[in-house]
Every structure is written in C-alpha cells, then in structure tokens.
Design goal:
Two copies of one chain form a homodimer. Chain A is α/β, with parallel strands linked by helices and 313 residues long. Chain A folds into two domains: 2-108 and 295-312, ATPase, nucleotide binding domain (Nucleotidyltransferase, domain 5, 2-Layer Sandwich); 119-291, ATPase, nucleotide binding domain (Nucleotidyltransferase, domain 5), CATH 3.30.420.40. The first copy, chain A, has eleven helices and twelve strands. A five-stranded mixed sheet of chain A has the order 3-2-1-4-7. In chain A, a hairpin with a 3-residue loop joins strand 1 (2-8) and strand 2 (12-18). In chain A, helix 1 packs parallel to helix 2, helix 3 packs across helix 11 and helix 5 (179-191) packs antiparallel against helix 8 (224-248). The two termini of chain A are 14 Å apart. The relative contact order of chain A is 0.17. The mean pLDDT of chain A is 93. At the A-B interface, strand 9 and helix 8 of A face strand 9 and helix 8 of B. Chains A, B: Belongs to the ROK (NagC/XylR) family. Chains A, B: It holds the Pfam family ROK. Chains A, B: This is ROK family protein.
Chain lengths: 313, 313
C-alpha cells in the first residue's frame, strides 16, 4: 500500500510517496505560496500528481492546531486567519481521502516509526523551521493533548517580557530560535550598523528569506553576526527544553527541521550543552540527536497518519 | 483493606489511615523535623502508631525524585543530600511494607482517584507549598516520566537570569511562588525598609516560618507587601503554567497544597487569570480548580499507591 505524505512548512512544501515500510519512493518540493490556502492546495495537488504512484490516501502535516480532523489555526502562514477546509479542498483536487496532522507531531511520528526515536517511550521532538514546532511521545504513544494542541515548545516562555514573538506574546523560544525571528533580529542589527554575509548569501542562493542553507553557509564562513544570533537562539532553546524536561522527564530529544538537516549532530550537541544546566534531574539515559530521516520526517509521519486512517476506515 | 498515606512536606508531615473508598478514617500531623532523615522517620513512625487502625501497608510521598522505589534527591529537606533508605528505615520502624512516591505526583493521584480531577484524562497538578511541586495525568493515566522525575513545574524557568532558586538556577517558578522563596523576598524587602504584618502574624501564630495560614491572614488584612510578593508569585505561576499548557494541552489544572487549602477557589481563579494570556490555544474546556481533598490529597494518593502495591504483590 502506498500513501502520500505532505509536509507544509512556512518556507517549503514537501510531498513524498511512501511505501509499507515507511520508505520514501519518490518526492517533490516547492516553495510555500504566500497567496493563501487555495494557492497552497493547488501546489500540493500538483506535487501529489508529480510524485505519482498509486496512493490510497494523503496525510497532510500543517503548522497549526488540528483537532477532530480540522485545522483550527495556522499562525505562520499568511492569509490563513480563518479556519480553512483543507481536507475537502485537497480531497476535491486529488480524489483521495485526506487526513490532517500538526507538522511537529507528524515529524516526530515519522522519527518514532522509522527514525531516531524508534523504540523510545518518552520523546520530545523539537522542529526548527520558520517557527519552532514540536511533538511528544509519552508512555509509549504519541501524545497530542486534549484538543490536539500539544507539543508547542516554540511557545514556552523563557524570558517573561523578552523579545516579541509572532504569536503576539513576549519571550517565547520561537522569538529567539525560529528562522523568521532570527532573520528579523539580523536585519535590525544590520540597520543598527552591524555587518553580515547573511543577506548576500541569501541573494546569491536566490532565496526569498534566510533559509537553513543560508544560515549553514554563514555559520561555516564564521560570520560573527550569524553566530551571535544563532547562539542566542540555541540559548533560548536550552532554557525551554530544560523546562520541558523538568516537567516531562523524557530521555530522548530529537531535533528536526531544516536547520537540523543542514547542521547535523553538531546542532544536537550544541543544544544538549545549552539544555543540561537547566535540567534539575536529567534522566541517566538522556540523549539528544537530530532527525534520522532529515527532510523526510514530516512526509513519512504524515503518510503513516494516512495509512492508519485508511486501515481504520 | 486499610492503608496508611504519608505526605512529607517541607513544613509538615501528615499521616492518614485510608479505607477502600479512599476515605480518610483518621489522621495526624506534626512539623517536619530539620535534623535529617532519621528524625523524620521517627516522627512518621509515631504518627503511623497514632492513627492506629489495621493497615496493610504504607505509601510515602516525599518532596523528591523517586525511581524504582528509591528516593534519589530530596532538595527541600535539610540534611537529605545523600540517597536515604527510606523504605527500609520506615519498614523497620513499623513492620509494614512501604512504597515511595513524589509528593506532587501522589497529591494529584489522590485528586484524580477521589477528588477534583476524577474522570479527567489530561491534568496538570500544581502543588504550592514550601516549594512548588506538581504532577501529571496524561492520556488517562498518571505520567511519571522516564525515571520518575516528571511534574516539576516549580523548575520551569520563566525569567532566564531572574531570581535565584533553591535549586541553584535562576528564574524558576519556585523562585517566585514557593513559600520559602516568598519568605526570603519578604525579609529582603523588610531589610530594605518596607513594612509588613507577616512577621508579627508568624510570631503570633507560633510558627517557625511564614506558613500558608500566616499568608492567608496577611492577605486578608490587606497587607501591601504580602499582596505584592504574592502577586509576583501568581504572575510567575501564570507564565510557567501557560508554557506547560502550550506543550501539553491539558484541560484541567488542579492547584493543591497548603495555600490552595487556605485560599480556596479565589486562588484558582487568580492563577487562571494570570495563565490565560500565555496560552496560545487554550482547550475550549480548560478549567482551573483547587484540590477537592484539601490537605488530604497527598495522604489519599500515597495510601492508594500502597494499596496498588499490596494488591500487585
């Protein structure tokens, strides 16, 4: 049986055709349109056609809260203020049954079924992208919360009264460690007279925004400003992940998303180092790693969501 | 079948004889000795003898991490630096089998089995005492974490670089909302020339420290300094509970411990109010309440722990 997994991020949409053993048989990728939900659904439908195969359903991971099959809010995509009928819209375009999940949750689901979190009972997933998402496996099963909104480690407040976050609050982890926030910080510092190669690297790579590959290049170049802003993000992640570990006592933290894919285990090591001082009683087995499936975690998890839903009828 | 529940706090030790339907058949209470574990075990054994009855076992809730039946750390009790054989020590003194639990966890367990959290699948318990403890019920069962250290909402950091906490970190919820921290703050402000009735109320009531009843009296009197320090604690609780709700999306928050027992639903309402601005997507069913069993939550939960252990053999 083949199913399609779709991972809608603030920057890219990735679509993969996935087989019975969670193997990705083919994939396709495009920038996320900024014109709103219809444009996003059109792109997804095109990408689904492009990967082809003989899928029996589609799983769709989105950066928002999903409850009882509906998307409640999608804060990091422009024009998505009102609830949108994503299931109906994509089903109409493709003729396939569609199930929804949160991007951080399906990302960790992919890693738990077929990647770095396989066999672990208590796992925190931290997904670094345009924003900072996350997912949880607790007591040996995915934990979604009472109405599907669990895992939002990006909105753990680490500095009450601190930097403004896209969610309208101050001092959230995402306000320091989300790529959009880091870009805002960089531009403010450039306006204040600081120098950086980040903007030129962005232009050279033909990117609309400072993507993970832009950050990777600037950090490799030893760009001071990039290192400084990035270090502030890693610090905030450490405080926030530490707080979550004090409450949840998991023994595995999986770091996913574009930055994890680019920076690899060095990133997991840096985040581990910035987290440890904040953990009261780290599990003796506490370990940090990056997603083993790289860019494909979300696609694999979303496809698995579709598979379970098709099997369950 | 009767079992004994013991709730060891930083201020008091409470012991209760508990029946099959979680009813407290008798109880007894003493100040927590400051001379270390042996003195504490002696007092517990005296109190167990005092409540009498025909118990088949003892459940012991302590303010520390419990893993595989052993107490790993007990940070809020003086002289408890090294791991202590509490099970053997109390078993020798009473001739009864003893099982250990964390105080916040057993407090919430009591409320979940027989109090305010009965029938709820996803619950955060916040226990306000000398420190700030907590417990979790997730997906319809108590969640203890990978090595028993879950639930430490007191050590969620809300102000990176903020006030020093008893755990050695800065900016933890407990550094603002624990009674010991609030007392430290009051005394520092008095040294700086501020006035308060808290110290006189403490002396009048014959208390060693500013207990919940001392705070209750000062807040009722409209003491400015008490209100200010207390409001700072409630603010920190709001930020910390909000962070946890963003990660866990539970729909019930139970506030327990001495302050909850004294201040009642007004306290739950105040904490709800200070939490709501920090929650990204509150569950439509989100509710805050105080422990229905009052002082007895921990005793009932600890006795239940003993009951399950005796039944399981």
């Amino acid at each position: 049986m083949q199913t399609v997994g779709v991972d809608v991020g603030g920057t890219n949409i990735e679509v993969g055709l996935v087989g019975d053993d969670h193997e990705v048989l083919g994939n396709a990728k495009q920038n996320t349109p900024v014109e709103g939900p219809d444009a996003v659904l059109d792109v997804i439908a095109d990408l689904v056609a492009e990967v082809g195969g003989d899928p029996v359903g589609i799983g769709l991971g989105i950066p928002g809260v999903v409850h009882e099959g509906r998307a409640l809010t999608v804060p990091n995509l422009p024009g998505w203020g009102d609830p949108v009928d994503l299931v109906g819209g994509l089903s109409d375009r493709t003729g396939l049954p569609v199930v929804l999940g949160n991007d951080g949750n399906v990302g960790l689901l992919g890693e738990w079924l077929h990647g770095a979190a396989k066999g672990h009972d208590d796992v925190l997933g931290v997904w670094l992208g345009t924003g900072v998402g996350g997912g949880l496996v607790l007591g040996g099963r995915p934990y979604l919360g009472s109405h599907g909104a669990a895992g939002e480690i990006g909105h753990v407040v680490v500095r009450d009264g601190g930097q403004l976050c896209g969610c309208g609050r101050r001092g959230c982890v995402e306000a320091y460690a989300g790529r959009r926030s880091m870009q805002t910080a960089v531009r403010a510092l450039v306006d204040a007279g600081r120098e950086t190669t980040l903007e030129q690297l962005r232009i050279d790579k033909g990117k609309e925004s400072m993507t993970s590959s832009v950050w990777e290049a600037a950090l490799e170049d030893g760009d001071d400003l990039a290192q400084e802003v990035f270090a502030t993000g890693v610090d905030a992640l450490g405080v926030g992940i530490g707080a979550v570990l004090n409450v949840l006592d998991v023994d595995l933290v999986v770091i996913g998303g574009g930055l994890a894919e680019k920076l690899g285990s060095d990133l997991a090591d840096r985040i581990a180092e910035s987290t440890r001082p904040w953990v009261m009683r780290p599990s003796p087995d506490l370990r940090f790693c990056v997603a083993a499936l790289g860019d494909d975690s979300g696609v694999v998890g979303a496809a698995a969501l579709s598979r379970s839903s098709v099997i369950a009828g």
